[in-house]
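QA checklist item 7 of 12: single-chain prediction sanity check.
[x] sequence parsed
[x] length recorded as 82
[x] structure emitted
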Amino acid sequence: MTRPTITGGVDRLERDGYVTRTVQPKNRSRLTIDLTEAGKEAVEEAAGLQHQVELDLVSGLSEEDQSQLSELLTKLFNTLQQ
């Protein structure tokens, strides 16, 4: 991601009330970006939706198939981390 892309994203999050920016007093070129209460609620809601989507995706699989899928995805993830 480029700096302008990140800045634009943070601008929109701030405009919509999900984050606040604070200039660091010791180094005014640095900012701290914090989630607001609305931002925290949005993160919690998104996490819940993601969890439900994951459950829906594997609902047609047996427990054994779900376990095997989990093992295979873990192997893929570990391979990508190398």
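[x] summary fact logged: The radius of gyration is 19 Å.
[ ] second reviewer sign-off
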